[in-house]
Amino acid sequence: MTYYSYQQIIDSLPQKKNSRSSLWVRWFIRKLSFPFTYLFINAGWSANQVSLLSWAVIFLAAVCLCIPNFWWMLAGVLLTNFWLVLDCVDGNIARCVKQKTFMGDFFDAIAGYGPFAFTTLALGVAAYHTSFLIPVSYRPWLMIVGAVGAVANIYTRLIHQKYLNCFFAAKNILHETQDITLKDTEDKKSFAYIREQIDKNIGVSGLFMPWLFVALFTSTFDVMLFAYTGYYLLSFAAIIVLYCRKAVTFEQQAQAKLTQERKNA
Question: Is pLDDT of 140 > 80?
């Protein structure tokens, strides 16, 4: 079994990738991920195995957040942040071993979508147990708010992924795969880059994590719940409008090209 030094693990991280991470990840989580990467990689764990472990961790974290006890909730907050550490660990391992994988993104998505579903639902339950702003008779609605937030978040990402799947399939049919680039996400003035940075710094890899600690110690999970459910609903509405417009435009252009090709055939 190949041994990897601590310095090799640190050196494997591209500066560009780290610079595009959220401030929370850059300042704290990434540094915490290195010693855990050292332990896992030299114990023979693969990146995909760490991804599956992180799924179990985020599920357990959500369960802990649902238990009406401060120490259990603290465990849930710590485990949620540990999930983010593991989310960095699997990438560190993949870069160190330099092994091409074809399903790595699949395993990463299994774990990566965990907090969008489990943690948002758990926020609703935690808010139900700790809220002092909402009257007792109305607190059950907090769990519904959590469910709405979870569905909006997952649905938004489903729309994004489905659009990309259709777009790439269409480009393949049109023999335009060479035109597919990441240029939009590289341009700091582009909508794609700005959206990515907002999501990283406000979402589960950014502000969300330290806010969990604040919400726990101030019993304001309800405030956090409303803030993120509102954010997820706004994101859902924006993505629906954006991708529907892009889909209509692309469909018209693609059909025009197919028509022209038939005429030239």
Answer: yes
